[in-house]
C-alpha cells in the first residue's frame, strides 16, 4: 500500500506546487491528470514531469485520462504519454452507457477495446485501471468487478471508492469482494469528509489493502486549502504505520 495524491482537481496549481504539497504531506505517490496538468498530446511535458516527480522521491502511480474505452480513438498515444510519464497504470472510463442499460453487444465491444488497450500497455509494463463513473459499465463496484472479470487480463484492474453515504459495513463488503481486482483506492476530497470522521470505514479498509500493490489516493481541489489534505495525509500515514 502506498499513500498518494490525485492531482486531478488541482489544474489551477503549478505542478511544482503540487509536488511540494505531496512532499509536505509525506505522501509516496502521485497520479497526474492528462487534462488538469495539460499532458494529453505532449510527451515531452509528460517526460519532464515524470522526471521531476521521481526526483522529488515520489512514484508516478497513475496517469488519469478522460479516455472513454469503446468511444475514443488513438489509445496508442495514450500509452506513449503514460510511458513518457513513467506511470504504473492508465486510468480510463468504460464507455458512456450505464451497466444496466447496456446491451450485450455494448459489453462485448468495450471488453474487446479494453483487451486491445491492455495488450498495448502491458507490452511496455503499464497496467490499465478502470474508474467508477455513472453512465459507464463500471457504475458501481459490482459492475466494475464484473467488467474486469470478463476482460480477463491480469493487468486490467479497478479503482475502488466508497459511496459517500453508504454505511461502512456495506462499503467494506464491496471492497472485500473486489479486493483481488483493485489497483487503487480513492478517498474523498480533502476538507469535505475528513477520513477520521469515518474511521470505522477507513481503518478497516486500510487493513484490507495493506501489503498489496495498491495506491490510496487522497483527492483535492483548487477551492480547498492544503491544510485539510495534509491532515488527511497524516491520518492515512498513521493508519498505514499502524497496520504495517
Short summary:
With about 240 residues, this protein is an alpha/beta fold. Helices cover about 45% and strands about 20% of the residues.
Key structural traits:
244 residues, TIM Barrel, 8 helices, 8 strands
Topology at a glance:
Blueprint: E1 2-6, H1 15-25, E2 29-33, H2 43-55, E3 59-68, H3 75-85, E4 89-93, H4 104-122, E5 127-130, H5 141-151, E6 156-160, H6 168-178, E7 182-189, H7 199-209, E8 215-219, H8 226-243
Parallel strand pairs: 1-2, 1-8, 2-3, 3-4, 4-5, 5-6, 6-7, 7-8
Helix pairs in contact: 1-8, 2-3, 6-7
CATH topology: TIM Barrel
The helix tally amounts to 8
Cα-atom Rg, whole angstroms? 17 Å
The CATH class is Alpha Beta
Main sheet, how many strands, which sense, barrel?
Answer: 8 strands, parallel, barrel
CATH superfamily: Divalent-metal-dependent TIM barrel enzymes
What letter string, H or E per element, gives the SSE order?
Answer: EHEHEHEHEHEHEHEH
Poorly predicted regions are none
How far is the first residue's CA from the last residue's CA? 9 Å
Number of individual domains: 1
Which secondary-structure class do the elements indicate?
Answer: alpha/beta
Question: What do the pLDDT scores average to?
Answer: 93
- Got a strand count? 8
Portion of residues within helices: 40-55%
Strand content: 15-25%
Which CATH architecture would you pick? Alpha-Beta Barrel
Q: Strand order within the widest sheet? A: 1-2-3-4-5-6-7-8
Give the CA-based shape: globular
Walkthrough of the structure:
InterPro entries: Xyl_isomerase-like_sf (IPR036237). It comes from Arenivirga flava. The protein has 244 residues and is an alpha/beta fold. The protein has one domain (2-13, 20-223): TIM Barrel. The chain is 43% helix and 19% strand. The protein is built from eight helices and eight strands, in the order βαβαβαβαβαβαβαβα. It has helices spanning 15-25, 43-55, 75-85, 104-122, 141-151, 168-178, 199-209, 226-243, and strands at 2-6, 29-33, 59-68, 89-93, 127-130, 156-160, 182-189, 215-219. The chain has an eight-stranded parallel beta barrel, surrounded by five helices. Helix 1 (15-25) crosses helix 8, helix 2 (43-55) packs parallel to helix 3 (75-85) and helix 6 runs parallel beside helix 7. The longest helix is centred in the middle third of the chain and has 19 residues, at 104-122. The chain is globular, with a radius of gyration of 17 Å. It starts with a strand and ends with a helix.
Amino acid at each position: 500500500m502506498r499513500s498518494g495524491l490525485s492531482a486531478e482537481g488541482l489544474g489551477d496549481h503549478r505542478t511544482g506546487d503540487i509536488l511540494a504539497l505531496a512532499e509536505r504531506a509525506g505522501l509516496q505517490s502521485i497520479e497526474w491528470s492528462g487534462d488538469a496538468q495539460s499532458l494529453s498530446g505532449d510527451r515531452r511535458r509528460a517526460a519532464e514531469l515524470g522526471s521531476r516527480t521521481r526526483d522529488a522521491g515520489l512514484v508516478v502511480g497513475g496517469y488519469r485520462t478522460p479516455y472513454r474505452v469503446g468511444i475514443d480513438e488513438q489509445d496508442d498515444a495514450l500509452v506513449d504519454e503514460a510511458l513518457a510519464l513513467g506511470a504504473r497504470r492508465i486510468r480510463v472510463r468504460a464507455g458512456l452507457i450505464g451497466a444496466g442499460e447496456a446491451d450485450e453487444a455494448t459489453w462485448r465491444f468495450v471488453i474487446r477495446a479494453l483487451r486491445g488497450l491492455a495488450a498495448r500497455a502491458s507490452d511496455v509494463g503499464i497496467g490499465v485501471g478502470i474508474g467508477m463513473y455513472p453512465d459507464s459499465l463500471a457504475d458501481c463496484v459490482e459492475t466494475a468487478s464484473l467488467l474486469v472479470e470478463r476482460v480477463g487480463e491480469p493487468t486490467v484492474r479497478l479503482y475502488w471508492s466508497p459511496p459517500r453515504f453508504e454505511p461502512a459495513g456495506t462499503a467494506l463488503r464491496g471492497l472485500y469482494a473486489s479486493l483481488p481486482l483493485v489497483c487503487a483506492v480513492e478517498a474523498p476530497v480533502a476538507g469535505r469528509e475528513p477520513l477520521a470522521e469515518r474511521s470505522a470505514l477507513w481503518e478497516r479498509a486500510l487493513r484490507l489493502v495493506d501489503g498489496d500493490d495498491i495506491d490510496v489516493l487522497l483527492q483535492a481541489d483548487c477551492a480547498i486549502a492544503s491544510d485539510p489534505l495534509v491532515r488527511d495525509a497524516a491520518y492515512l500515514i498513521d493508519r498505514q504505520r499502524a497496520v504495517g
